[in-house]
Design a protein that fits this description.
The complex is a heterodimer of chains A (259) and B (582). Helix content of chain A is 48%, strand content 0%. By secondary structure, chain A is an all-alpha fold. The chains are: A mainly alpha (259), B alpha+beta (582).
Amino acid sequence: MSDNNKKTNESIEKDQNFDPSRRRFLKNTGMVIGGVAGGSVLGGLLINQDKSDTATTDKNKQGAASPTEARMFFTRYEDFVVLEQTTERIYPEDDNGPGAIGLGVPYFIDKQLAGKWGVNAADYRQGPFLDSDPTVDMSSLTRGEIFILGLRKINEESQKRFDATFAEIEVEQQDEVLTDFANGDVDMKGIGSNRFFDLLRSATLEGAYSDPMYGGNRNMEGWKMKEFPGAVASYADIIDDKEFVKMDPVSLTDYQQKS
Amino acid sequence: MAEKLDKVDVVIVGSGWAGGTAAAELSKKGYEVVCLERGKDHSTEDFIGAKDELKYSRRIEMFQDLSKETLTIRNDIDEVATPHRSNETNSINGTDTGGSGVHWNGQIYRWLPTDFELRSKTIEKYGEDIIPEDMTMQDWGITYDEIEPYYDKFEETIGVSGEQDPLRPEMSRPFPNPPMKETATMALFKEATEAMGYHPYHMASANMSEKYENPDGETINACMYCAFCEQYGCDFGAKADPIVTVLSTARRHDNFELRNNSYVVRILHEDGRATGVRYVDTQTGEEYDQPADLVVVGGFTFTNTRLLLLSEIGKPYDPEANTGVVGKNITTHAANLTHLRVRGFFDEEKFNRYAGAGALGATMDDFNLEQLDHTELDFLHGFLIRSTQLGSRPITHNHVPEGVPTWGQEFKEKSLFYTHRNLDIQQQNGVLGWRYNYMDLDPTYKDVFGDPLLRVTYKFHDQDRNIVRYAHQKSKEILEEMGADHITVPEITDETEFGHNSLGDHTAGGVIMGDDPETSAVNNYSQMWDMENVFVLGASSFPHNSSSNPTNTVGALAYRATEGMIEYLENDGGLLVDPSKE
């Protein structure tokens, strides 16, 4: 963290950039999201305030608001907070590097759901939908609908068990809820909770490791952890090397032809 | 009302390896040829800068648009089939110019001599009793010696890079290019299997080991080992595909035309002869009739089978009455069985697994069809074993040893650690036909034009599970010899069943080849017994699936079929083979 940041509210800075959670941010600022409506209004105001502060103090810092990081698909901020929290538990920040939030995974998923993938446009969608325990792909629900249903169900389970939103509970409690989803132990409308969880998990990995142009894998940090060199024209000179060859990754931004 | 176009000599359905090969040969001979491709136009220019795992490996960009047409699947004849809805469950077959031949890996094997006479040779060796009831094993009506020159021809066209398999018959001449380079894990595989007394060799490849000019004058560039091969078009024109080979050859001739966005809905026929095809321009919705003297059906297995059923050509197969042929003997290298792999994890070694090529690997035939004594085994046919290096792209490759969770802190840690410290040993086995595994038209679900979808009825048998279980034990022994610290063997239970995650791009049958019109739909020139001016090319003609990859056999049979077409056109028709009755 550079010196000129010190005059800003350090706890906010820290939350914004290093702490994977909005949860702690809200705790530290004394704000508790209770009901959906209240949280929406207060959360929205706070985040806007917070982002403008950050943007004016250090534009280049990791995690600084990018103009591509606004919600296209998720209309409710509360849903997006749950998405942030769940993806971070699936792929947490650790000594290897950033977690899902730091990599931009929630915004990646938001963009994917806003496009043809979210409405299953490339899929066969004629009924009847007859499978009793459909996979995500075989469900009458679109991927977008499954995400909304699943994320809200996660908050609902959290409220039921701990009397707090998913963002407010401790990580151990978060993992407990997610484990039940992963095991298919939570009743969801139209789809098994394990199916929803598998979708969430695979979308998280997609966001961590797809080309940064999609909004995840921020600064190619996912590829750096994975030691994946990205779009490299040729490995002809190292393909028969017996030793491991480490390379700096290249994204399509640099690989593709440009005018 | 369909607009009637000017008549041509030959109309071809599909521009992949089957249709494309026919297109090149017939165009060279001067025939007026129109090739109808349902998908869009694309070429090597579209693949430059396409190293995008999300788009091609996850969203399956190059495969059939299922929103327009798919197939339905069930296990038993008394069940209701449900549609295969998403390519993300399982991507099955390609579309667009060049078809599946554009996004294949380029793994090249000839099929085994015994494959073509499987029933006769099995009975000769073991007696008829070894063939289970309801297994519809049959001969192909062609021998290996008859097909060998066509293998040779296709291998020259696509510039195969490789070496002679020590356990297969000597080829009439070596492959046109030397083998690809050898990676650390391929060397490890070879060292281990040689120590175990096996016969590993360098897998033959349609990725070029060096720049190559084929006999038609088409240039294929040298492979860069860039690791974007499978499910991708080649960035460098370094993988033999129909676009840079046979279609390029056809396009040198003014008498050839490729029409994209042209979805063939019927083969038109009168009095037992095809008169042409009807297709829809998918960009305008307009219908056209394209008259032709000869109709070549060169689509994927499903397209070929469905088009014949919709057009009411050939006798539909009825498993209960055990009559008819069209739709019979579907076989596949199932993604959730045949292609399940044993994986080894290495704590101390680290390999350059991010690099690779679609057909880069070492392979062996020590457990293949002709090497095994089946009297001591609970399965027929056999399997190859191989260790490949296709490039471990990061979204798809997050393998962890058994016992590690699939998400969370430990998963992240271990999946990162093992990224370049794991490899799989793949077995691929022969898959045989069964009486109740077949294709017909679905009674409920329709395509975008209102026509019934194709319905697949398919069930695994003990044969299918036993051969994979046996192969997995062999793969595990090899990984132990290679020094893997942790080995994961996929569980196969008696409940492991064919489903929506089974079908792959190695699916065959439906319009099978043979010498008897009662049990086969086409003769060994791929000519329909029931309609002599219709030739049906592709893996649809395979009575069973061998243990190796199908494309080389698709290409070889396409060359043979085209010789037959030319003979047919020059001699004013007739069946090219006398039907035999058993």
